[in-house]
Amino acid sequence: MPSDFDFRELLISLDDDMSNEERKRFVFLLGDDIPKRKREDPLVDIFTILIDRGRISPTNCNYLVEILERLKLIALAYKVALFETKRSPSISLPTELENNQSINNTHVSSTTTSGNIRKDVPTLEEFLKDLNASDTMTISDYEQNTPTDTKSIVAKPEPTTIALSLENIDLKVFENDSWSDEFLQKINVNIHPYEYQRELVQSAIQAGNTIICLRSGGGKTFVAALLLKYYSIKKMTLSNGNETKFLAFFIVSRRAMLKQQCEKLKQIGNLQVIACDENNDVTQYIDNYDVIVCTPQKLLNCLKPKTIFLSNIDLLCFDECHDTVVRNQYVGIMQYLMCQTIDHIPPVSSSPIIIGLTGIVGLHRPSSSQITRQLIVLCATFNCLTITTVMKKENEIELEQCVSRTAE
Length: 408
What we know:
Organism: Rotaria sordida
Strand content: 5-15%
CATH class of the largest domain: Alpha Beta
Helix content: 40-55%
Largest sheet: 7 strands, parallel
Protein name: Helicase ATP-binding domain-containing protein
Radius of gyration: 22 Å
GO molecular function: ATP binding; nucleic acid binding
Pfam families: DEAD, DED
CATH superfamily of the largest domain: P-loop containing nucleotide triphosphate hydrolases
Number of strands: 7
Shape: globular
Structural class: alpha/beta
Mean pLDDT: 79
Strand order of the largest sheet: 3-4-2-5-6-1-7
């Protein structure tokens, strides 16, 4: 059971994560719950009033989650909702999943624009599943809460534990075949992917630029990590021994997700991954790191003064690509790829692969035409021609079982 002290600590962290404008809008939505004379008070005082009036408590955060959702502060709503439901110590999910999942050695699927779109689960429940499952690569509470001293490791990335032997890796197996234990060992993947995850990875490879649509709790970040490893290995293999550098950006919609997503990606192995916080600039990491996790504004701040060029980036992965809060910033990045006739935009000699990740397209039970429109807008925004989703019936069943198990 969450304690009162932990709850107040959570509220302080919410205050820290909000901008001044977000705080103003938050208080505005509270309406008559806050006396007029108190509405200019610090946010911690506002929280105190809500506690005293019984509107929020360690075991009742629904009101707080609703306000955050209405403000589209989804990452903060995640944090609060998880706190309320977290009654017992977290389980190390990778170990449990490895013990329970099996490799069925079935073949690759295809892509679609209307396949496995979840309609029958409320938004909050989807969010809870997503965070509780931690995209099938859950890290411990200690790891999630341990601060990353980015300044101290800029020049010294963490060494990979096992070096890859590129000559022993058959990319055709990665692209089109089943993945045996022997193959996973060769590419140094210690967490066995589910068959539906392999299907998504291989379909995305065939598609090139694509939007990966996977319901919450299905492991979108793990799928993205596997794709990052594939494209890294492919570039190293095609270099024929010449010195080359793989560079990818994993772009998160909110600062609160930086460290969490960074830690998940690190678990794929053999990729140097760093989270770029607000105190640093991404340019200081490009020489020593393969994957930079940052907010869209961080990358835009380098594209505008031309300190980074898209031609030097191998892959751009947009997490929560449906997020309307950062839509303009996502579009701002994509214009450097798609608007080559504009004078201030430099030419792109080699375009990066574009991967979009989404898990909530089609919630709130919209009509088929509304869903189609959502998908078309996403594809147009990110220069994608396909939506990649789970298509094989047996893999849909496996996905359902996986999400149900991780939600328990």
